[in-house]
Amino acid sequence: MGIQRFIDLWKHRYNKYILQQYVPAWRFVQSYLLVRRIKLNNPKQQMIGVLLAEHFGDIVAAEPLSRIIKQKHPESKVFWIVRKPFRELIDSNPNIDYTIEETNLYQSILTSKHHNFDVFYNLHMPELRFHIPTLTFLTNPYAEQLGIHVKNYFEFGNLLEVFAKVGGLPLSQETPKVYISESDRQKIDQQALPQKFVAIHCHSNFSPKDWQTFHWENLIQRLYELGYHVVEVGLKSSLNQSLPGYINCCGKFSLLQTAEIIRRAQFFMGVDSGPAHLANAVGTYGLLLFGKFVHFDKYLPYSGGYATNNAIMITDGQKPCADLPFEVVWNAVEKHIQNTSKS
Question: Transmembrane segments in this chain: where (predicted)?
Answer without folding.
Answer: none
